[in-house]
Amino acid sequence: MSDTVDDVLETVAAVAPDVRGGLPGRRLTEAGVENPSGESVTAADVHADELFFEALGAIDGVAEFASEEREAVVDTGDGAPGEGDVAVAIDPLDGSSNLASNNAMGTIVGIADESLPAAGESLVAAAYVLYGPITTMTVAREGTVTTSVIDGGEARAVEEDVSLPDDPVVYGFGGRVPEWPDAFREYAREVESELKLRYGGAMVGDVNQVLSYGGIFAYPALESAPNGKLRLQFEGAPIAKIIEAAGGASSDGEQSLLSVEPTDLHQRVPVHVGNEAYVERLEAALAD
Ligand SMILES: O=P(O)(O)OC[C@H]1O[C@](O)(COP(=O)(O)O)[C@@H](O)[C@@H]1O
Ligand SMILES: [Mg+2]
Ligand SMILES: [Mg+2]
Fold first, then answer.
1. What residue's CA is closest to ligand 1, atom 3?
2. Cα 179 to ligand 1 centre (Å)
3. Quick one: which residues bind Mg(2+) 1 (predicted)?
4. Binding region for substrate
């Protein structure tokens, strides 16, 4: 299985420059369809999904492929996750609405040893690619986190044993303030007097701020959307795997995001990730 995990991670690094290279020609182009979450899809989302599906689905040992942009899990091989093979769940382009304003975007990948949908506890590795001024890939595997620069389709490690700084500096919370539940709004009031706001509208970019400087990122439950906006399988669980492996914590408001049992491939979940002290305070605030 570890060879397959290597193959998946190397393939993500190989495909990332093509995803990035395809962005300029797809700026401002809607695909004219909605994804399974009911959101409009850009041509860049479709292109990234196709590139990753073709490359990852072709790997021997990848038995299932699921994407934020596809209704159902695709059975890609003869084997089954857990019997030496893996399942890959991907958000091909995270923060794709940032393409119009030319801001950061990413790709999020979870590699599980169980059939999808699967809880975060079944992730054997997780990674995100950040398409910023440079393209980087951050991987959680065997309890440690490594950040690499992707150059010519290959990942070159630039930081090993990445961990959240002990002294948190930044926060970023999604959703409109009047939509936040009262307990979250009160918690946010405290946090904003302690940390600096960093919110760019792409989870990967905003989480990478937290990984770099310490702090907390959240896309909380909203009055109109009690499970928030982000998807457990494609966003919440893999990001939680990375933040927890880097010494931080994650929560859906009550428990680690890795413990949430999925009932639906595209289900949403409130996401809170960052330094343990801030996540614990958040859980205490919501429990009051
Ligand atoms: O526009 P909002 O409400 O701030 O939402 C931003 C959030 O939505 C997302 O863009 C959703 O991801 P997708 O772009 O993959 O659908 C996250 O990256 C980000 O954290
Ligand atoms: Mg996303
Ligand atoms: Mg996406």
1. 175
2. 16
3. 68, 91, 93
4. 94-97, 199, 229
